[in-house]
Design goal:
This protein is an all-alpha fold. About 70% of the residues lie in helices and about 0% in strands. It contains 16 helices and no strands. Helix 1 crosses helix 12, helix 3 crosses helix 5 and helix 7 packs antiparallel against helix 12.
Length: about 450
């Protein structure tokens, strides 16, 4: 019991007294800046879940993430990159809320708004690099878990915000006026613009004062005279760094694939109508988000009890791979077939366009629930620990570009997910799809000895 109590205590908190690395005032300012980063991550995820999405925003984010990281490294400050991207986000959100003014070219401006949101959301790489610089090694896991939790909450609140705006209704018919509107379609955009403006204000020096400490901690630990000497003395393990980037890609790809397939899979395998699939999957995803929040809260105490690398491999990767195995059809019979003249929204497996429906087995409901539960635990555990270990492997040096590369790997996996669904699931069915993802995940698990904690 005493061991568990010690595990729950989370390192050095913002109200702890000062020490040789920083004063009590500097510690409070440092943690205040971390909380601003949390809000930034929450707000960007919320905005991304509203102005969602397609391949284009992810490609924007893929290109912009390393560039913003390079900018932060060169400037030795994250304030300018964060403020610039937040300003773009506010403009994109306001544009999204005023698309009616852009008629008859509203579609073009909608795509422009999505592109700007994708570009601005690349600031998560800068935010992660700041967390690495502004936390001691003992605090890193806690800080990254808090950052991941903020992102999940943003993705949960986004759809809820859209639902909350429904009572506003669609508004009066468009009559060609050039005044802003507030209705169920524009309210989320206005909310994003307001939160983005608040976030910009939080980046002012009175609220956000950058307090990097990782390099100073390394300097003290090595007995060096300057932070620059300490950074030069630590050689980063590039092999492990690239393997962690690949591992991040694998985990995100697994999650995105199941997320992308969820509605179509349940309609094909359980005969649900589109309305039922959306309703049931909405409830299941909400439950999965709650599970993920609980996992984020437990990561810090778990890393006090178990080594981070082992927890990543046997918790994150094993559970994610198990989720793929559980989604391979093992049922005694085939999926319910859609009637030849049935509408697409009525459910059932359409053998006319998916011939594998006639030969494939059926996924049982129990299998699917167990698989979704496994990925709801394994994914948040895995991605948080990958980011934590990645930061520690790189050491105290500026990590903007590398965090941009890690973020870019996630973007590639999110862009490839729908492509994989179209090319494999639609043509071959669930068995080859999930055998492929399970093989990929367990192959990554096999590199255990090459990972460096």
């Amino acid at each position: 019991m005493e061991r568990l109590k010690r595990a729950v205590r989370c390192g050095v908190g913002p109200e702890a007294p000062g020490d040789e690395l920083e004063s009590a005032q500097e510690r409070r300012e440092r943690w205040r800046s971390i909380y601003v980063i949390y809000f930034t991550m929450f707000q960007m995820s919320l905005g991304f879940s509203i102005v969602l999405t397609g391949v284009w925003p992810y490609l924007d984010k893929l290109v912009a993430s390393p560039l913003l990281g390079w900018w932060a490294n060169r400037a030795r400050s994250v304030r300018a990159p964060l403020a610039t991207t937040l300003l773009l986000f506010v403009l994109a959100s306001a544009l999204y809320a005023n698309l009616h003014l852009a008629r008859p070219h509203a579609l073009v401006w909608l795509l422009a708004a999505r592109a700007l949101v994708g570009l601005s959301s690349a600031n998560v790489a800068v935010a992660r690099s700041y967390l690495s610089a502004a936390t001691r090694e003992a605090e890193r896991t806690r800080a990254v878990a808090g950052c991941s939790l903020a992102q999940v909450l943003g993705f949960v609140v986004g759809p809820a915000l859209q639902a909350a705006a429904a009572p506003l209704g669609p508004g009066a018919p468009y009559d060609g006026t050039t005044t802003p509107r507030l209705d169920m379609y524009t309210a989320p955009g206005w909310t994003n613009a307001l939160l983005g403006t608040l976030n910009l204000l939080l980046l002012l020096p009175c609220c956000f004062r950058e307090r990097p400490i990782a390099a100073r901690e390394a300097m003290r630990a090595q007995g060096k005279q300057t932070e620059k000497e300490a950074i030069k003395a630590i050689k980063p393990d590039y092999v492990s760094s690239w393997m962690l980037v690949g591992a991040f890609f694998v985990l995100v790809f697994n999650f995105v694939l199941l997320e992308t397939l969820a509605t179509s899979l349940t309609m094909d395998q359980f005969g649900w109508s589109k309305t039922q699939a959306l309703e049931y999957m909405g409830a299941l995803m909400s439950a999965g988000a709650l599970i993920a929040c609980a996992v984020f809260a437990m990561i810090t105490p778990l890393t006090k009890l178990f080594e981070e690398r082992a927890l990543l491999l046997w918790g994150g990767f094993l559970l994610t791979g198990l989720a793929s195995l559980l989604c391979i059809p093992w049922g005694p019979d085939g999926p319910p077939l859609a009637a030849a003249d049935a509408l697409e929204s009525e459910g059932g497996c359409p053998a006319a366009v998916q011939p594998w429906c006639l030969t494939s087995r059926r996924i049982t409901l129990t299998q699917f629930f167990l698989g979704y539960t496994s990925v709801s635990i394994g994914y948040p555990l895995g991605v948080t620990l990958i980011q934590t270990i990645f930061s520690k492997v790189l050491g105290p040096r500026p990590q903007g570009v590398w965090m941009g590369v890690l973020t870019g790997a996630g973007c590639v996996s999110r862009a490839l997910g729908p492509v994989f669904v179209a090319s494999v699931y639609a043509r071959r069915g669930p068995a080859p799809t999930f055998v492929a993802t399970a093989t990929l995940t367990f192959a990554a698990l096999g590199f255990k000895r090459s990972l460096q904690g």
